[in-house]
Amino acid sequence: MKHYWLMKTEPGEYSIDDLKKDKSTGWDGVRNYQARNFMRDQMRVGDGVFFYHSNAKPGAVGIAGLAKVCKAAYPDDTAWDENDKHFDPKSNSENPIWFRVDVRFVKKCPEVITLQKLKATPGLEKMVVTQKGSRLSVQPVSPDEWELILKMPEWV
DNA sequence: GCCAACGTTGGC
DNA sequence: GCCAACGTTGGC
Fold first, then answer.
1. Taking 90 as the threshold, does the pLDDT of residue A81 lie above it?
2. In this structure, are residues A48 and A63 in contact, taking their beta carbons and an 8 Å threshold?
3. Taking the model in full, what pTM does it have?
4. Nearest nucleotide (C1') to the CA of residue A34?
């Protein structure tokens, strides 16, 4: 069963343009158990991903493009790199705590689908990202939400 | 930059 | 196991 996802990134750190340039990237640095569990337990090659820009200027916050999972979960070795920003002394190669997946660029939105618009769209009231205080950086998207968002004019 | 909401830590 | 303190996220 194919799943759909929304993955957040700060465009100042890694944007849809970076993914376009790189073609694909390892989604490392996730240090939240719920987000990890989604990646480790449910993400499969071919799953669809909305690439979301968080913590950006007002008007730039929202879905910035489309990606797909191109490699299923494997240990995030940045967790045992002391020099890495996301170093976690509890994790090591025998007993990895944190995982990453790889995602491949599919498409950039000519226009960002803003969070404001998502919140105002009937049918997306229950979407995780539109909930107040929602901080989860890897979150599931229902097939209905996926279809509805893909039909928006911002994609063309 | 502010600050509300959230997740994690650690003392008890 | 509770919960206060703390650090982080992320919209605005």
1. no
2. no
3. 0.94
4. B7
